[in-house]
Amino acid sequence: MEFFDSHAHLNLPEFGPDRSEALARARAAGVTRITNVGVDAASSRLARDLARDEAGLLASAALHPNYAADLGEPEWVCVAALLREGGFAAVGETGLDYYRDHAPPELQQDLFRRHLALAEELSLPVIVHCRNAHADCRAVLAEEMPRRNLADRVVLHCFSGTGEDARAYLALGALLSFTGVLTFPNAHSARAVAAGVPLARTLAETDCPWLAPQARRGKRNEPAYVTHAVGALAGLHGVSVEEAARITTENAVRFFAPGEQT
Ligand SMILES: [Zn+2]
Q1: In a domain, 262, yes or no
Q2: What is the pLDDT of residues 102-113, one digit of tens each?
Q3: Which residue of 22, 35, 90, 133 sits 20 to 30 Å from the alpha carbon of 260, by its own alpha carbon?
């Protein structure tokens, strides 16, 4: 059985001391591919270095909306330059975050649109972060995805929207990605939303070091535990874990590395 953690942060300081051990545990669990996601220039560069050094690791680069105001224009220039150098499988995580009130919405939307334009220019898929901002996120994507040829090339990571949001994103041609949050006892609505998304349009992720699944709740999360998200998806869709692992892995390979065979 093979798993693909479509959204991890082995490139953040939480994994500084024992990154290679975490990677070894992931491989032992059957997690053969991991996309490490950048949130600023330094973490994006490290994600790319890791992808060069280790088999099965992919990298993405972006300036996260939470840092749009603090780091601002000079950081965006660095991130855009890194992406143009190459070595990345995706642009992200970009998007809108109105939960943490770190940057004005107009600034976040402008930066989001610039990431989408660069993704079109570089023919890369996009990892979208959206928290408490689905109305504006849907509006931006409804405008940008058709004109930038991004159908099948956008994933809403750690999806937290409603069933109606999910249907709107699916209609635009986006994929949705789910974490170990699905294993939390009180996550009834998240499970109902995930059950309504076809497995063919679903990715699995950890978003580690955050959001450890119920069995590890309160501890640091890591890519090995993507098996918990896949197990939850299998249960929701009434298929075996093997089947859910195969489908979510194939989806992620097609999304991040369309030239590669599974
Ligand atoms: Zn993330």
Answers
A1: no
A2: 899 999 999 999
A3: 22
Residue 262: per-residue pLDDT? 47
Residue 77 counted as domain residue: yes
CATH number of the domain at 130, please: 3.20.20.140
Contact 156, 203 (CB under 8 A): no
For ligand 1, an ion, list residues with CB under 5 A. 207
Distance 37 CA to ligand 1 centre (A): 6
Sequence-distant (6+) residues with CB within 8 A of 1 are 30, 241, 242, 245, 246
Q: Is residue 98 part of a domain?
A: yes
Residue 42 CA, ligand 1 centroid: distance in Å? 15
DSSP 8-state secondary structure symbol assigned to residue 57: E
Q: Residue 101: which domain range?
A: 3-256
Structurally, the chain folds into a number of domains equal to 1
Confidence tier at 134 by pLDDT (50, 70, 90): very high
CA of 1 to the centre of ligand 1 (A): 25
Ligand 1 center from residue 207 Cα (angstroms): 5
Q: Which residues contact 184 (CB under 8 A, 6 or more apart)?
A: 190, 214, 217
Q: How many Å lie between the centroid of ligand 1 and the Cα of residue 46?
A: 15
Distance (Å) from CA 93 to ligand 1 centroid: 7
**Global model pTM greater than 0.90:** yes
Cα(94) to ligand 1 centroid in Å equals 10
Q: Tell me whether residue 154 is in a domain.
A: yes
SS3 (DSSP) at 185: coil
